[in-house]
Amino acid sequence: MSMNPVHEINELDFDAEVLEAGVPVLVDFTAQWCPPCRALAPILHRLAEEGAGRLKVVAVDGDRSPALARRFGVRGLPTVVAFAGGKEVARHVGLTTREKLLKLVEGRELSAGARRDRAPSPP
Questions:
Q1: Which of 92, 89, 123 has its CA nearest to residue 105?
Q2: How far out from the chain centre does Cα 46 lie?
Q3: d(C-alpha 119, C-alpha 24), whole Å
Q4: pTM here?
């Protein structure tokens, strides 16, 4: 059995692991008691394996690191927050798909939202 590519982090190593990372990072705010969190774990595990070297996936246990959950305004679990260049670029609350997570980390969700705010192009 391979080692889990999704490492748990806490307040002590969050900045170094996430904000100072040289690649985009998905942060999974999770808890052991949370069924949707457990359902999301294999999806994140697969993304971490597939994206090794280009993408980092870490987990924050909301019960063990409540200060981090407060710092990022996490109000429900699971919450996945995408970071790039040390900044939050997108987030999703609840169970989701691999494709949605990839869109988050690629910033397409923000771009799509910005496009909806603009006037439609003439036909």
A1: 89
A2: 13
A3: 31
A4: 0.85
47-69: b (≥16 Cβ within 10 Å) or e: bbeebeeebbbbbbbbeebeebb
Quick count: other Cβ atoms within 10 Å of Cβ 26?
26
Catalytic residue among 9, 26, 34, 81: 34
Q: What is the 3-state secondary structure of 19-63?
A: HCCCCCEEEEEECCCCHHHHHHHHHHHHHHHHCCCCCEEEEEECC
Query: Would the pLDDT of 97 be above 50?
Result: yes
> Is residue 34 among the annotated active site residues?
yes
Catalytic annotation present for 37: yes
Question: Among 37, 40, 57, 58, which one carries the catalytic annotation?
Answer: 37
Q: What is the pLDDT of residues 7-56, one digit of tens each?
A: 999 999 999 999 999 999 999 999 999 999 999 999 999 999 999 999 99
Work out the percent of the chain whose per-residue pLDDT is above 70: 85
